[in-house]
Design brief:
Strand content: under 5%
Shape: elongated
Number of strands: 0
Helix content: over 70%
Number of helices: 5
Order of helices and strands: HHHHH
Oligomer: single chain
């Protein structure tokens, strides 16, 4: 059932891909470049960059369920960002360290 929902949503709605790319790649890159221009590298700045690259939280799905708004869309975003963050966070850590 869950796979069917993911396939149905991913074929129709390109906003899923835009949201994932922005959340996992663009926002951390922007924060990294701004922090490299403004301040010297520190553990606090690196922590902020890593936290910005984390997947969408499960709270997204919980709130969508409670307010009865696009539950399937929220579940797909959380699931896909969690899976893809295994790759993106690893690459980010390799790049930063």
């Amino acid at each position: 059932m869950k796979v069917r929902v993911i396939n149905k949503l991913s074929e129709k709605d390109w906003t899923i891909y835009y949201g994932i790319i922005i959340k996992l790649m663009i926002i951390p890159a922007i924060i990294y470049f701004i922090s490299s221009l403004v301040v010297t590298p520190s553990k606090a700045i690196n922590t902020v960059i890593i936290m910005s690259a984390m997947p969408a939280s499960a709270m997204t799905s919980i709130l969508a369920e409670n307010f009865d708004k696009e539950k399937d869309f929220a579940a797909v975003i959380v699931s896909i960002t969690t899976l893809l963050s295994l790759i993106t966070v690893t690459v980010l850590l390799k790049f930063m360290l």
